[in-house]
Write a structure and sequence with these properties.
- The chain has 141 residues and is mostly helical.
- It has one domain: Arc Repressor Mutant, subunit A (Orthogonal Bundle), CATH 1.10.10.10.
- It has a two-stranded antiparallel sheet.
- It is elongated, with a radius of gyration of 18 Å.
Length: 141
């Protein structure tokens, strides 16, 4: 299983945004500098996040981005979905009778990897941006 940089960076950027969201809109430039993520890459990510109504852009000299919903309402699965990130532990489709190895049956360990994928996706469904912001602030104390 591999989570791409797009998914990881989207979560990092949104946690950063959630930390400052109550004060003023946050510029992508500030997030880029704090998190070490390319500004161009952030613009691509935030375009997708805006389309899925996770963030809202504010124009003007004090403009930037704010969360469209409360941090506790935004689950990691919402973020991954917005940036087209899929968490998969097997290459075959769940509904297919064929296995990843191209044979007519699924491999002997298919159910193990399928169960792992379910656990991972459930974990991401339970975690919100608020959880990550709290976790980050508790570690700094």
């Amino acid at each position: 299983m591999k989570l791409t940089s797009k998914g990881r960076y989207a979560v990092m950027a949104l946690v950063d945004l959630a930390r400052f969201d109550n004060i003023n809109p946050v510029s992508l430039r500030d997030i880029s500098l704090r998190q070490g993520i390319s500004l161009d890459y952030l613009e691509q990510i935030f375009s997708k996040l805006r389309k899925k109504e996770i963030v809202q852009s504010i124009r003007g000299t004090q403009g930037g981005y704010i969360l469209k919903r409360k941090a506790k309402e935004i689950k990691l699965t919402n973020i991954f979905d917005a940036v087209d990130e899929k968490v998969k532990t097997v290459q075959c489709k769940k509904e297919s009778k064929k296995g990843c190895n191209g044979k007519s049956t699924k491999c002997l360990t298919h159910n193990l990897w399928d169960e792992l994928e379910n656990h991972i996706n459930n974990f991401f469904e339970e975690k919100s941006l608020e959880d990550l912001v709290k976790d980050n602030s508790e570690r700094r104390i």
